[in-house]
Amino acid sequence: MIDPVVRLRVDALSCGRPVRIGGENPAHVHRLLRVSEQELPPVVVHRGTMSVVDGRHRLHAARLRGASHITAKVLDCDEVDAFVFALLANRSSTTLPLARADLRAAAEHLLRHRPQWSDRRVAAITGVATRTIARLRTLLGDQSGARVGRDGRTRPTDSVRRRELVRELLLDQPHLSLREVARSTGVSPETVRAVRAGLRSEQGLPVVSRARTGTAGPAGRAIEPMDCADLLGRLRNDPALRSSQRGRALLRLLHLQVELRASWAEIADHLPAHCHDSLAAFARQNAMSWRGLAEVLEREHAS
Whose CA is closest to 302, among 236, 221, 240? Predict the structure, then answer.
């Protein structure tokens, strides 16, 4: 929360943790000296430490002018959230953008102080690629068992633990839909479907086929749910695929499909409403293409 604009004593303010690892830019400070204070935006000060989180160059210029007070807004939050505010404010700067090394250092700082935040959340704040965030997390030795995403939901990182959560929820509330369970546990609907099929098998109940969703094998035979990650693992172990360029390209494509399947629910939750119809149509066309491929392969296998 930011308070209205106030006047604060310059000598009462300090500089908090910098988002620029090289500190202030002297040339930029001198440019600010040629601008009147009335033309500059207020600095932002963290209430708990009275440190400037946005406007370090403006504070330095005020000190060089010999000013006793400076216009400011006071930010009421913890120090990490204050750092995030400073980072986002400086990332949007057009006069003095952050260097890549600054962004990487900021990502490391957040991973140390907010290890529970997901890679995507840290990437969105810092502008660093998600894969780089994951590598930094590994280098820092993070062993936390859960992540908090941008939507505020906590999800376990251990896939085995995720399946256990799905199983517990299905046993406790069997009436829930696949999507409801998926959203509650942070897994894909396909994972929920596989766990539910396993439970029904254990209980001696018939496994519900996917025929009603349009997935069927040759001659209309319903296909039982299968774990795509397991299928991909088998294909990866096939030398005939790994030894050819087309085979390796296919494995990369299938790997991307498996990775995305785990994120569809989260992606759908954050899509702009005006894109829903177009993307739904694209998804249907893509599904038809895959089904066409399945039918061709099944006919060739049967012949």
Answer: 221
